[in-house]
Amino acid sequence: MRVLLTGHQGYLGTVMAPVLAAAGHEVVGLDAGLFADCVLGPPPADAPGQRVDLRDVTAEHVAGVDAVIHLAALSNDPLGSLAPELTYDINHHASVRLARLARDAGVRRFLYASTCSVYGAAGGGGLVAEDAPLRPVTPYAESKVRVEDDLHVLADGDFSPVFMRNATAFGYSPRLRADIVLNNLVGHALLTGEVLVLSDGTPWRPLVHAADIARAFTAALTAPREAVHDQAFNIGSEINNVTVAEIAEQVAEAVPGAKVVITAETGADPRSYRVDFSRFRAAIPGFDCEWTVKRGALELADAYRKHGLTREDFEQRFTRLAVLRAASDTGAVDDTLRWRR
Ligand SMILES: NC(=O)c1ccc[n+]([C@@H]2O[C@H](COP(=O)([O-])OP(=O)(O)OC[C@H]3O[C@@H](n4cnc5c(N)ncnc54)[C@H](O)[C@@H]3O)[C@@H](O)[C@H]2O)c1
């Protein structure tokens, strides 16, 4: 398949592009490149792609494409809260426009990177399946719900949107992120000797490795239409339904000498949910996640040591909010996060 991969220069896109290529697909990238330089280790060999803002996409960008994998977004809760209107412009309106253009161009499958954050304040009781009520608690999560709603209306006999509700990602990517929980805790532990938990450690955080997300999308791309058409899927594994305190314990085991410190200073976190991932396994027989939290913590600790993670990189280069603030302060981007040059 010829696959348009938006966000190919992001944390997940940088891992997914080679997995798609290895499965025999032709990958064409599209990304504004907001974090293109946030690299830990050797620079990745990006798929051929264009530096285009999602808000400027035209019919030309989807011409001749068999499928779209849409990852590009302002991609986490703190970013969304920084600029809610921008989050809705980019994550919601521009995504729906892209989907319409894709449908008009005859693209048959559209894999949308949604999130388990759509369940928001679901509570820590039973497992949350795809038909649970959606209770987003941030503009980021709300933007994902709105896209799912609008793409569902576009679904027809020729156009199959698929809503991939990823758990929170972890693991090494050449374009690293330190603002997601496991990557953050491992980095902090290595740099300071403390596994620092600012919440009280009780919230549930379903996790999934970036490489398992890449494998899930690759499988969904070629699955029989009836198995995935217009459906939502939680992407992850029940064994990685863990509390923040449990994640911290795994990190302490992966980083010898590190001590868990739970400060509870951020108070109660309403985002807490345990997730049922069985629908995707039923749709894609044989699929399961390969990575545990423990193995991911060891992988990250090795990568951080090997590539010489510094405190400055950890706090600036690999923290998306800091990267965007710096780009704005230096005038590299305008107040709508468009490049000035
Ligand atoms: N990483 C996670 O834990 C996680 C979990 C659930 C869902 N997701 C979703 O998966 C997708 C990819 O996440 P990620 O972790 O790789 O995020 P990321 O921030 O690393 O990458 C997002 C990419 O989108 C690009 N982008 C942002 N605004 C753009 C615009 N206006 N035009 C063009 N490109 C733009 C950025 O330059 C970046 O390369 C996102 O949609 C995210 O919401 C991620």
From TrEMBL:
Pfam families cross-referenced by the UniProt entry: Epimerase
Location of the NAD-dependent epimerase/dehydratase domain: 3-236
CDD domains according to UniProt: SDR_e
InterPro entries: Epimerase_deHydtase, Lipid_A_modif_metabolic_enz, NAD(P)-bd_dom_sf
Name the UniProt record assigns to this protein: SDR family oxidoreductase
